[in-house]
């Protein structure tokens, strides 16, 4: 192994061809353009092969490697070649799993085999520290820090998921950041060199979008990695008072609409339930007594086939209310003059009192000695005789003249007696 920082660096040997062990001068051509494809500690040896060189026969390849110091050792005459890929048909061989030392120098060789005949070995020296490409940071994270941005990096990783800083101590990062324009025009890039995995980008504007990309570098062998994918983020800052006021009004309006909608939905639900359980159209009273179990109940009662209502009631007929006959009161002169055949001091006056339910009538003497029942009996007799003839009233009334005004006052103090009809009586 060579020292890491020695000034007289061993130069890797160029591609050379050596005869295969035991070869008898076969004409199988060796592989061409043997190169290594590397990234951090991932190594792959690849080569080219002429398509028509093997004719119709299949071709296979064998890859081996050995540390270079074994070839120069005088004590060890025969080096110990390690076979990485044996008789494979691929044009490449992965050497990552062998964990080649990053600071070592190795000799790689590959041989072609066609129909049992071997070609010469195509050899190449490989120096990982010098030839292995350096990869960009494995992860880039942006975080707002007020009006600035924090950039957090993760070192490039090896094949064993360890940091490449273990193999490249002088690793550092080149950071580029710029303001993202709305019209898509490119803005000037600002550059920053950092040796750590975290940095705060200075001099940024508040509430502005910035993009960042990073690459890994090592100056010892002038290694420069590719840039990472640009990561963009908006910076923050102090919120203006009018913006806070607008947020407050928006949230207030939002919750007001939610509460109003909830109240309206509850009101509609309650109204619907009320209309279903207690409809506004009530059942007629003359039907309730037949459908309900009791007169005071509003719950309909189901009728059985053998119920009395179905047996006794064939139908329901709604009749109009009976017409109330008109009452004609004769003039006072006729009431004052006694009919023929009666004594001059005898008179009868009929009074009618209006009420909301029915009319009452009665005859009382001026002396007030007759009771309400005797007056009703006398009035019935008068009505009966009046239906036949006016002359039948002779001799039926008291010869005393009845005072109409006193009778009216007396009737108001008496209880009302319901009557089914009113008949005009003229005396």
Automatic annotation (TrEMBL):
The keyword NADP does not apply. GO terms for cellular component: plasma membrane. Residues 136-238 form the Fibronectin type-III domain. The chain crosses the membrane at residues 241-267. PROSITE patterns: FN3. The keyword Flavoprotein does not apply. It comes from the Eukaryota. Keywords: Membrane, Transmembrane, Transmembrane helix. GO terms for molecular function: interferon receptor activity. Residues 334-375 are annotated as: Disordered. CDD domains: FN3. Residues 354-364 have a biased composition (Low complexity). This is Fibronectin type-III domain-containing protein. The lineage of its organism: Eukaryota, Metazoa, Chordata, Craniata, Vertebrata.
């Amino acid at each position: 192994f060579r020292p890491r920082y020695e000034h007289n660096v061993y130069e890797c040997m160029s591609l050379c061809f050596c005869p295969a062990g035991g070869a008898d001068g076969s004409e199988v051509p060796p592989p061409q353009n043997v190169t290594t494809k590397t990234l951090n500690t991932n190594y792959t040896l690849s080569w080219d092969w002429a398509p028509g060189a093997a004719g119709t026969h299949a071709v296979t390849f064998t890859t081996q490697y050995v540390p270079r110091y074994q070839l120069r050792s005088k004590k060890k005459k025969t080096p110990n070649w390690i076979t990485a890929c044996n008789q494979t048909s691929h044009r490449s061989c992965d050497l990552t799993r062998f964990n080649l030392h990053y600071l070592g120098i190795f000799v790689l060789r590959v041989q072609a085999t066609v129909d049992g005949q071997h070609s010469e070995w195509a050899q190449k020296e490989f120096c990982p520290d010098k030839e292995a490409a350096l990869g960009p940071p494995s992860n880039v994270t942006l975080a707002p820090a007020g009006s600035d941005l924090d950039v957090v990096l993760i070192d490039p990783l090896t094949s064993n998921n360890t940091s490449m800083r273990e193999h490249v101590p002088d690793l550092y990062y080149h950071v580029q950041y710029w303001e993202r324009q709305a019209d898509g025009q490119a803005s000037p890039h600002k550059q920053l060199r950092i040796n750590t995995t975290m940095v705060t980008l200075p001099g940024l504007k508040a509430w502005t979008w910035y993009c960042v990309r990073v690459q890994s570098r090592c100056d010892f062998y002038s290694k420069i990695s590719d840039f990472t994918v640009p990561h963009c983020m908006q910076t923050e800052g102090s919120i203006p008072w009018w913006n806070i006021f607008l947020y407050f009004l928006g949230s207030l309006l939002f919750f007001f609409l939610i509460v109003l909608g909830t109240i309206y939905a509850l009101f509609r639900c309650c109204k619907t339930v009320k209309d279903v359980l207690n409809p506004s159209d009530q059942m007629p009273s003359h039907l309730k007594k037949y459908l309900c179990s009791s007169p005071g109940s509003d719950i309909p009662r189901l009728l059985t086939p053998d119920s009395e209502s179905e047996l006794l009631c064939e139908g329901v007929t709604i009749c109009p209310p009976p017409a109330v006959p008109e009452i004609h009161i004769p003039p006072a002169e006729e009431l004052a003059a006694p009919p023929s055949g009666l004594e001059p001091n005898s008179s009868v006056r009929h009074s009618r009192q209006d009420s909301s339910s029915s009319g009452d009538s009665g005859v009382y003497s001026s002396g007030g000695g007759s009771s309400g029942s005797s007056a009703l009996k006398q009035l019935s007799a008068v009505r009966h005789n009046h239906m036949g003839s006016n002359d039948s009233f002779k001799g039926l009334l008291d010869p005393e003249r009845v005072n109409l005004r006193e009778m009216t006052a007396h009737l108001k103090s008496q209880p009302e007696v319901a009557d089914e009809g009113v008949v005009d009586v003229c005396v």
